[in-house]
Automatic annotation (TrEMBL):
Keyword Metal-binding: yes
The protein's name in its UniProt record: Fumarylpyruvate hydrolase
Molecular function per GO: acetylpyruvate hydrolase activity; metal ion binding
A Pfam family that the UniProt record links to this protein: FAA_hydrolase
Domain of life: Bacteria
Keyword terms: Hydrolase, Metal-binding, Pyruvate
Domain Fumarylacetoacetase-like C-terminal: 26-226
Natural source organism: Sulfitobacter brevis
Length: 230
C-alpha cells in the first residue's frame, strides 16, 4: 500500500500507433559535437564521454507549449538525437549496442544556461540548470527497424523559422554505439532508459512566444512553443 497515489508512469508516444514507450531514466551525453564544445569554451579532445541525467517526467510529448521555467533569464535550446533502450544489459560491446536499442527520436535538452554556468564556475553538479520540469520535449519514437541510420543524417533546429543549428550525426565525437557501450560499463541499462546524445553548435536563447522546430532526417521532427513565464 502506498501512502498516496503513485505518480503516473512517464512515457512517450510511438510513431504511427497509440502505443506508449515507458521511460525509466534519462541520460544525457555532454559536449558530443566538436563545434559545440568549442562554442562552450571547451577543448573538443576525444576523451571518455561524460553524462548527466534528467528525471523521467522531464520528458514531454511534442508538439507542445513549454512554460518558460522559473529562476532563469537565459533559457537555451539544444537539439539532439534520442535513443530509446528496449533491452537491458551491462558491459555491452559496441558491436552489440544496436541489439539493445528499441527506437530513436528527436528531442530538446532545454537548459537554464545561467544556472548551469554558475554551477560550472562553482564546481557544482549541473542538475539545477538541466533537470527541471518539461526540460526534455521529445518527438514520437520511431522503431529502430524503420530508422535508416543513427550514424549519419542531418540534425537541425530553427527558431521562428530561422535555422540556428545545422549539422550531421556523423559529426558526433562519440557514436551511439560508443557512448551507449560506455554508459553500460558504469551501470546496468534497463528497458525504458533514454539516452540523449548531445547537441551540435548553434545553441542559443529563446523567449516567450518563440516557436522551436527541429528534426533528424529519417527519424522525425518536433515543434515546441515557449509559453509565458511560470
Amino acid at each position: 500500500m502506498y501512502v498516496f497515489d503513485a505518480p503516473q508512469q512517464a512515457s512517450l508516444a510511438v510513431q504511427g500507433t497509440e502505443d506508449r514507450f515507458p521511460i525509466r531514466r534519462i541520460f544525457c551525453v555532454g559536449r558530443n559535437y566538436e563545434a559545440h564544445a568549442r562554442e562552450m569554451g571547451k577543448d573538443p579532445t576525444r576523451e571518455a564521454p561524460f553524462f548527466f541525467t534528467k528525471p523521467a517526467d522531464a520528458a514531454v510529448d511534442t508538439p507542445c507549449t513549454m512554460v518558460y521555467p522559473k529562476l532563469t533569464a537565459n533559457l537555451h535550446h539544444e537539439i539532439e538525437l534520442v535513443i530509446a533502450i528496449g533491452k537491458g544489459g551491462s558491459d555491452i560491446a559496441e558491436t552489440d549496442v544496436m541489439d539493445h536499442v528499441w527506437g530513436a527520436a528527436v528531442g530538446l535538452d532545454m537548459t537554464r544556461r545561467d544556472l548551469q554556468t554558475e554551477a560550472k564556475n562553482m564546481g557544482r553538479p549541473w542538475d539545477w540548470g538541466k533537470a527541471f520540469d518539461a526540460s526534455a520535449p521529445i518527438g514520437p519514437i520511431k522503431p529502430i527497424a524503420d530508422v535508416p541510420s543513427v550514424e549519419t543524417g542531418r540534425i537541425w533546429l530553427a527558431v521562428n523559422g530561422e535555422v540556428r543549428q545545422d549539422a550531421d550525426l556523423a559529426d558526433l565525437i562519440w557514436s551511439v554505439r560508443e557512448h551507449v557501450s560506455t554508459l553500460s560499463k558504469s551501470m546496468t541499462l534497463e528497458p525504458g532508459d533514454i539516452v540523449m546524445t548531445g547537441t551540435p553548435a548553434g545553441v542559443g536563447s529563446v523567449v516567450a512566444g518563440d516557436v522551436i522546430t527541429g528534426g533528424v532526417d529519417g527519424i522525425g521532427e518536433l515543434e515546441v512553443k515557449i509559453g509565458p513565464r511560470a
